[in-house]
Amino acid sequence: METTTGKVKYVFSAIFVLISHLAMLTNMFYNGNCDPSNMNKFVILAITVIGLDILYFIAMLFFKQSTYTIDFMLIFILNISLIFQSSFGGISLSVKHLVTCIASLISCRLGFILCRNHKWIQAKKKAFYIATGIIMLCILTLTGSRSMWIDLGFFTIQPSEFLKPAFILVCTTYILEQQNKISVWKFNIVPENLICTGFIILICGLQWWCRDLGSLPTFVAIYLCGLCARLCYPKAKLSKKMIITGIASLAVLAITAIILAPPYVKSRLFVDIWNDTSGDGYQQSQALIAIANGGWFGKGAGNGDLHNIFAYETDLVFASICEEWGLFFAIMVVCAILIMLASPLVNPPRSYFHATLATGVCSAFVVQMALNIFGSCNMIPFTGVTVPFISQGGSSMVTCGFMMGMLIAGQSPVFKNPTNNKKKKVKSK
């Protein structure tokens, strides 16, 4: 942004984001539930959205980066989600979601600062192993009887969300690490790869203990993408036998997981929602009815009925958007998130470390988003996971913001060569 061209792009990007949010607010004013009795609530919401945009644009000027693509996409998506969450069942600023959006932006900056220098993280790799272990220990000891929440009275924390970025950092690798091999029973093994495998085994057991199997595919995706990045680093050679063995092992594990799944999981796998609309199929059937009622352009902001269903703002948020804003807006938001995740393809990461980091982050977002949307549409069993940045939730929003900071770090990394403090002695003749 030091050049004139960079400044012009920054200004035009900011204008595009502002116009997009103004267009949504205009749609809410004309087509939503904006009668004179709640006009003050609409004005407060509009001022908050535009004000947050402007403040973030100004704040970004203090951060020197190679590109700001992800930053503009992030504030674009967050304020769209704030508009959505403030309109379900009636127009009123969702203060809770506003706070979590701001927390997500702050967390994004922290992730950016932490992950810029891959050499520093490389030196602190053991600390991330310990941090991951501590989070898992907190889940075991502080969440209560086989739960996944820590209840602090005035708010709750879901520690498994913080486990995601920690596990991504554990799975992230660099080329030199993959060249450090040891011989075990005539097999050349990379110790760090075994550590990652051990962690995913422990996480699978922990998620089963917490009855949070819905989040398990996200962790498995992070591990598989990390493993592929580790095994397929430049000039690595994979035999056909290894590939076939890996695929066969995954198939066996999937079948075994279905067979050994708890009864409530099996009931979700094989439930007919239309024959059980008051039981296990209740939420999905209501979600599908809401999507159908919304059509392409929705019933209008604040005019929906799905807000009377449990978890309408979290697990069923895609259906809630479809009902009030229409399938067009819902698909637009999904595409915006995918474009934000695809930005590393447009601006490739500057190191192999950041490339594997971006792979882990993108896999977590895509799988989590797919589980929520396909589950709401009854294409797969209902899992109860959230849509990143769109669903309401404190732990999820903070974690997602941190992981987006990881992606930004891959676009504007810092390379610091180790300094040599030894003074050269010059012999005088």
Explained architecture:
The protein is mainly alpha-helical and 429 residues long. The chain contains 17 helices and four strands. The strands form two sheets. A two-stranded antiparallel sheet has the order 1-2. A two-stranded antiparallel sheet has the order 3-4. Helix 10 (216-231) packs antiparallel against helix 16 (352-376) and helix 15 runs antiparallel to helix 16. It has a domain at 117-411.
Q: Summary?
A:
The protein is mainly α. It has a domain at 117-411.
Output the helix-strand order: HHHHHHEEHHEEHHHHHHHHH
Indicate the proportion of strand residues: under 5%
Total number of beta strands: 4
Computed over alpha carbons, the radius of gyration is 24 Å
Measured as a percent range, the helix fraction is 55-70%
* Poorly predicted regions: 418-429
Reconstruct the topology from this structure:
Layout (H helix, E strand, L loop, with lengths): L3 H28 L7 H22 L8 H17 L9 H21 L2 H6 L1 H18 L7 E2 L4 E2 L1 H13 L3 H5 L2 E3 L2 E3 L1 H19 L6 H16 L8 H21 L2 H7 L12 H13 L22 H8 L2 H20 L5 H25 L17 H18 L18
Antiparallel strand pairs: 1-2, 3-4
Helix pairs in contact: 1-2, 1-3, 2-3, 3-4, 3-15, 4-17, 6-7, 7-9, 7-10, 7-16, 7-17, 9-10, 10-16, 13-14, 14-15, 15-16, 16-17
